[in-house]
Amino acid sequence: MEATLHLRVNGQSHRLTVDPATPLLYVLRNHLQLNGPKYGCGLQQCGACMVLLDGKAQPSCLIAVETVQKQEITTLEGIAQGTQLHPVQQAFIVEQAAQCGYCLNGMILSAVSLLKENPRPDEAAIREGLERVLCRCGTQSRILRAVKRASY
To answer: 40, 106, 125, 152: most buried by Cβ count inside 10 Å?
Structure first.
């Protein structure tokens, strides 16, 4: 059964008619055409679907859209300021911290969330902040360098 829901995504208000139990990920991708969050495992274990909910990194694949109506939702598309990339995005480019790119959404948003709480994390804190995101490409050392670079 569909209902009209109000969401605030990337600083913009949206009024959508959807089933309230629909996962947030599906609403972001299918209704709002935001492709930063990806479908990975569907079990909140890989981090590909990561979004920021009130500034904190959270997987979006199992969160019912009705439960986030009062929260600010930020996707990868919403962290830049106009044409100015977010410092984490810029650091990932400088450090060439991408290979296949599937984990990038989760890595970048987790790093943004981490740096908001801990602006100068050590390597152990960075590893802990990124542990919910799986990467199989072998760019972990470059990802760690990118997060460290963004913290300066």
So the answer is: 106
